[in-house]
Here is the input.
Amino acid sequence: MSIDDEIGEWRRTHYTSQLDSRLDNEHVTLMGYIASIRDHGNIVFVMLADKDGEVQLVFKRGKEVSNNSNSESISIPFFKVKSLKEHSCIAVKGKVKVSPNAPRGVEVVPEELKVLSLARSIPPFSVYSRTFPNLDLRLNLRAIDLRRYYMRAIFRIRHKVLKAIREFLDKEGFIEVNTPKIISTASEGGASLFPVFYFDREAFLAQSPQLYKEQLVTAFEKVFEIAPIFRAEPSRTNRHLAEAISVDIEEAFADYKDVMNLLERMITYTIEYIVKNANDELRIVNPMLTIPKTPFPRYTYDELIDMLRKNGYSIEWGDDLSSEHLTFLGRVINGYYFIVDWPSSIRPFYTKNNGKIAEAFDLMYNDLEISSGSSRINKKEELIERLKIQGLRVESFEYHLKVFDYGMPPHAGFGLGLERFLMTIAKLDNIRDATFYPRDIDRLIP
Ligand code: ATP
Ligand code: MN
Here is the structure.
């Protein structure tokens, strides 16, 4: 007995991406949702989409009775076909037919149809629309927004980026770790922490795995973590999320120059992987993606301050680069480049420095910061000194400082914003489209 809105015993035999002319006249069972419907009266074309692609179903009035005797197949009442709506979830059993004019070179003539879930209302966007201007409307219905082929391509690229990064770091001898996201003190200092109730105490969501990954190099030397970071960013920008994914690495017996080289190779390895393995997705989101040349240009902070001043910007040595400054620099310098040797006063307390200049870098793409990293302080007294200078409470860091009593190797590392990196690969203007469910000052749902 086959109930026509239950999957029952039906299982798909093929994904649409597996259909081709070699299957001519074969019977297949397909499942997915309806990408589009073209109703020509006595013939209705339905594009059935599944996770990898789509195929055209051809429903004809009068031809709906199946004479396939070895199944309990029934005729498909045409009113049922007529009642279908885009985005509805369906399953069909039918016959593959070679059809040179159809999108895949084949189409399927259904003999049985199950409407597993009929869309109740007209969907606000077509799966084919590349841009849909109302971001809030899209985000409010994010799961359905993600059915758009453009969005799906972005997140399939994201998957491949993560795969390439893991593959690269594994080959380089790094091991993947996970560190606590509920923490007792800031890892970087400063504001921008989310407080949480932790039993009878106050705790915070981790803004970075910094101190833990430093501790872990004592045992493992080369570690990486891919995990959320939480930042209470009060500003509304196209590049800040309250919850983002950070690709963090830390390496013992290395300095900032070593990890810059590593980062550069990780970026090119990943982009090369995407160019080779994400053709279909790139065709939709960024056909022009090319593998960047290495080494990436390196500019010192001082050089850029000079450049800014020569172009009429007033900036004091020791000031952080504002978004206005970065906009200018991004117009002059294109693609990926490093800014190195920052004033130590504007870098976190754990950054190795000579009292004035820090062994620190930012990796930029035009005007967008992708990553920050540095050599770290591995001497306890120096670290205590820096905590004091930056106005942080030394007692709060006791649990961390004591590790430095037991032979802390020199080390360096970086944090790379996954969404920001994806923005550069998929050519996105807004970081909200590089994450499944963005969190920002205005948004806590869905
Ligand atoms: P910005 O100056 O752009 O706010 P940051 O210097 O505060 O970034 P870091 O603490 O250096 O950020 O974090 C390392 C990396 O993590 C950044 O280079 C960026 O790619 C990413 N990142 C940091 N904060 C956010 C955020 N709020 N949303 C998305 N990505 C972020
Ligand atoms: Mn930074």
